[in-house]
Amino acid sequence: MADIFETAERDELLQLRQFLKEQNHKYYVLNAPTISDAEFDEKMHRLQALEAKYPDLMDVNSPTQKVGSDLDDSKFFVQRAHRYPMLSLANTYNEDEVRDWLSKLPQDDLAIVCELKFDGLSISLHYQNGVLQNALTRGDGTIGDDVIANIRTIASIPQTIPFEGDIEVRGEVLLPWENFNRLNVERANNEEPLFANPRNAASGTLKLQDTDEVQKRGLDAYLYYIIGENLPFGTHFERLQWLRDLGFKTGENIRLCHSLQEVMDFIAFWDTERKNLPIATDGIVLKVNNLQLQQQLGFTAKNPRWAIAYKFQAERELTTLKSISYQVGRTGVITPVANLEPVQLSGTMVQRATLHNEDFIRSLCLQVGDKVWVEKGGEIIPKIVAVEKESNAEAVQYAFPERCPECGTPLVRIEGEAAWKCPNSEGCPPQQCGKIIHFVSRKAMNIDGLGEETIQLLFQNNLIKDVADLYDLQHKDLVVLERMGDKSATNLLNGIQKSKTVPWKRVLFALGIPMVGETTAKNIAKVFTSVDTLSHAILEQLTAVNDVGEQVANAIIAFFANERHQQIIERLKKAGLQFASDEQTELLSTKLLGKTIVISGTFAQHSREEYKNMIEANGGKNTSSVSKNTSFLLGGEGIGPDKRAKCGKLQIPIVSEQEFLAMLE
Ligand code: IVH
Predict the structure, then answer these.
(1) pLDDT, tens digit (0-9, with 9 covering 90-100), for 584-637
(2) pLDDT tens-digit profile of 571-582?
(3) What are the tens digits of pLDDT across the range 464-483?
(4) How far apart are CA 626 and CA 633, in angstroms?
(5) Architecture of the domain spanning 316-415
């Protein structure tokens, strides 16, 4: 009996280890965790307990022994070794665990600094004689990605500080709520996937390869740690003050505590007050104030012993699923939405939650009438995390609708995709309206005076069915409409008139080709300077554009193959819209047009980022991995062995830095 039990536990240990490794990858690299932090920590505790029980199964690579790695697989960023390892914090979830930690510390004159735990990602800034040199993510704790170009977009991080010598300043990069919400609204308008929370958004942003886009998103940073020699402070509290004097943001919500009670009061205060902060926080960090004592306490393999994090519980409530409704997006994707008995959660009334797609509903075995747990774990979008089944509930099989709830057309599900779609793109009202709303939106044609409501009004009055109809609108048709006087009609027509000067790259984005977002449209317009060349492009020409893979290329080809789209474009052309770029091309040359180039290694004359820019400015495409489509590999010092081997196998030339520069001369 004991044997069976032991085998089961040993099995559980190995499975947990694998599971937690996968979750680390989802959290740190993909920025898309599929379980909550609390669930992760619970499983980590269980793994620790099992490893203590079965020491023969111990493994130095276990997630209990290493911090999760955020290293970028694409190797776009230069990877550098941390001069001092970058560790994580042990987490606690209740008062007992805090008491336990405090009681193990020497009690004489014990002072603890309590700070907010910023919900972003850690960064280590290296300053040499006062000048910012590089900025490394935590990576695997030993090596990090140097994201200096993106860090330089953060106005609150000083480029220079009044300090001679070498120091390392550490803290957290985050996306304030306001910027996070704005980003998600834009993404929703473009039908791009939303970021679940500001941490994921900050992490995704810091790893972008486009600094202009990073700049627009508006990251910020709070710093809390400095490592260097002969620094003029003896406590953590003074360290924070010194950081502030050097020009860093440290956050003002800090308290020096001398008892468990004071610590718990601080925690309780911020547990409710946190919703009024401009930034996301997921807990409180407790740190021993005296630096000598910190040094004595030291570190475990993963965490300092002189600090712990108290994590706030995600707020959850039980409510009832009243019904499921189905929303039709502009590209025909059907999104199921849960209509809930209204419930108060994190200060807001929640009555709807996304159910993502059919598979999500099935995975929860969800039925109308079920009691469901809704959670807003530092996340803006409430989600259903669990179902409480009534024991006598009938097990009715859930069925996704077969027809479009708006126009009745039979739905289709493309193999390999999770979403059902309504294929009636021309005759399904929310799709028609959605396309027009997208067309006039700020980043597309930016037509003043034409909001969603007005579009609905024009649509319902049969004045517009597609975007080309906008340019046929006349003053006399408009003034007779409800809530539309002479002045608004004139403003609207002026706005439409003005849109005729919007440049080609934005017209292209406005057309609403599936999967062609703002950046992709910009990249395409750089290479294809008119709609005529684009509409005749073949797959290979399209995939040579930066950011365009086969799926996107096929979507573009399918879009232009549609006769109705051709007719609309013809009418828009006649109306005078810009279907060609008169900036000629923003390219410096077309010397690399059609070339797909992989960069590997380090270089003497330019950084990797500069080489990437050069490739793009000369019409080429930079990709991260070697494939049969690679034209050549631009190789510096220390080419990755896998890449070198693949080049050999596929007979892809390796071009040196000098040879490459000669090509562009
Ligand atoms: S102190 C040796 N203070 O939380 C580690 N960390 O879960 C010292 N974090 O890796 C870290 N706010 O990225 C510290 N006020 C704060 C923090 C903070 C957020 C992050 C940090 C750390 C992670 C651990």
Answers:
(1) 445 667 788 888 999 998 887 777 777 887 898 888 888 888 998 899 999 988
(2) 999 999 999 986
(3) 999 999 999 999 999 988 88
(4) 8
(5) Beta Barrel (2.40)
Q: Which residue among 28, 119, 169, 172 is best mutated to probe the pocket of ligand 1, counting the most ligand atoms within 8 A of its Cβ?
A: 172
What is the phi-psi region of residue 378: left when phi exceeds 0, alpha when psi lies from -120 to 50, beta otherwise?
left
Ligand 1 atom nearest to 251, measured from its CA: 15
Any atom of ligand 1 within 6 Å of the Cβ of 27: no
d(CA 652, CA 382): 49
Q: Is 118 in the pocket of ligand 1 (CB under 6 A)?
A: yes
- Ligand 1 centre distance from Cα of residue 172 (Å): 7
> Which residue type is seen at 224?
Y
Residue 572's SS3 state is: helix
The sign of the CA dihedral 508, 509, 512, 517 is positive
DSSP-derived secondary structure letter, 195: P
Q: CATH classification of 596-664 is 1.25.40.10, yes or no?
A: no
Q: Supply the CATH classification number for the domain 2-57.
A: 1.10.287.610
Of all protein residues, the one whose alpha carbon is nearest to atom 17 of ligand 1 is 117
Token output for 140: 């695997």
Q: How far is CA 343 from the centre of its chain?
A: 28
- Look at the alpha carbons of 496, 498, 500, 502 in this order and tell me if their dihedral is positive or negative: negative
Residue with tokens 């075995």: 365
Pocket mutation for ligand 1, best pick of 91, 92, 116, 118 (most atoms within 8 Å of C-beta): 118
| 117 is a catalytic site residue | yes
CA pair distance 229, 234, nearest whole angstrom: 12
User: Matching CATH topology for 316-415 and 429-575?
Assistant: no
Topology at the third CATH level for domain 79-311: D-amino Acid Aminotransferase; Chain A, domain 1 (3.30.470)
* CA-to-CA separations, 258 to 114, 116, 240, 263, 394, in angstroms, rounded: 10, 17, 18, 8, 56
pTM over 0.90: no
Residues 6+ apart with CB under 8 A from 27: 33, 40, 68
